[in-house]
Amino acid sequence: MDIRNSILDTIGHTPLVRLNSVTRDLACVVAAKVEFFNPGGSVKDRIGPTIIEDAEKGGRLKPGGTIVEATSGNTGVGLAIAAATKGYRCIFVMPDKMSQEKILLLRAYGARVVVTPTAVEPDDPRSYYSVARRLVEETPNAVLANQYYNPINPQSHYESTGPEIWEQTDGRVTHLVVGMGTGGTITGAGRYLKEQNPQVQVVGVDPIGSILYELHRSGQYTTAETYKVEGIGEDFLPGTTDLEVVDTIVQVNDRDSLLMTRRLVREEGIFCGGSSGSAVWGAIKYSRDRDLGPDNLVVVLLPDTGARYLSKIFDDEWMRENGFLERAWLDVRVGDIQAAKPDGALISARPTDRMADVVRLLKEHNISQVPVIDDDGRLCGVVTEVDLLNHLLSQDHKHSADETIESVIDPNVPVVRPNTPLEALMGIFSNNSVALIATGDEVQGILTKIDILDFLSVQVR
20 to 30 A from 2, CA-CA: which of 87, 279, 423, 442? Predict the structure, then answer.
């Protein structure tokens, strides 16, 4: 029989899932380490039991004691699960920007939750770090889990997350992308992977407003600012963060992060939180900027479930109030925009078509790009008038009248489905000028920014 001794035995061994829709314009493979498969719904389940066990072994935590922690919510859940199985009480201190779902969840585990202001300095007596330390001093037989400075945090990921990724990828992982909060995950897992293969690149993701990007880049930083994404970014350097392990840090903003989070559930069926959207957006941005090819395997860690953000990221009204979602985007799909085009017939070319013929095709239909489809109906990419112009002006080789378009096909064009929401399309167009519509291998249309403008201009009349 396969019966676990306790819920703690179900922690870890979370799956790697290949991302398909949101990464279709990338040549590299991007696989998500989906941490909401842990029993408490996040990567922080990994450190809860190990932190408590270390405190027990060190004699700092005795039977009937209380565990106190400053947390954005997920570490609290990880600690609460372990505390429930061991008979400890919990007090968790959270900033006021955290979702109501997280507060209610911690209380469901029997924990006391203290909410503190977000916009204060770390050493302010009102900060959640300071309040947590004060509660430890005031509470008999209490211990501070101290995830920001406890070496057990990165050690847990060195012993579990890193080895899992190495085993699941058969040692072929080339890049690890992780959102940075305490830094325990990226430090522990990154250190393990680099020990197995020093060529593995460890990429951190940091929200604009946090100091970690500037600190890694120049060793200096300005004052931190507020941002909406929860669970990543800091206004100080945690002791659990080893910047020497991190090769690069990518900055992301709230808008891109939250819209990507919504895309992940609608296009990939992966119901995750905002920091997951940050990590995926950062992974895509990094992969695109570095032009990673098919030999690269990028593993991006998705920290938690979307169930804790139903009142925020997945609430259209909250998204609109915070400027992340326009009313005109609601319920509009790619298929709606394509159907509204005056001439919806697909104009395409083949790789063997002559450049002169394709130039004539673009001129005849007054278009600036055309999808390229081979004789078997498979999409090869897109050819644009800019690519044709640059090629014909090039002096690198001799041109001829029979020259085909094969050498100027761009294979990295983003592909969307007819049911892709407009908000996802807007995220794509922040880095691309054109997107193809396809179901499976069947290309059904092509969209540009002007197509969206035409559609929306009609809607607001």
Answer: 87
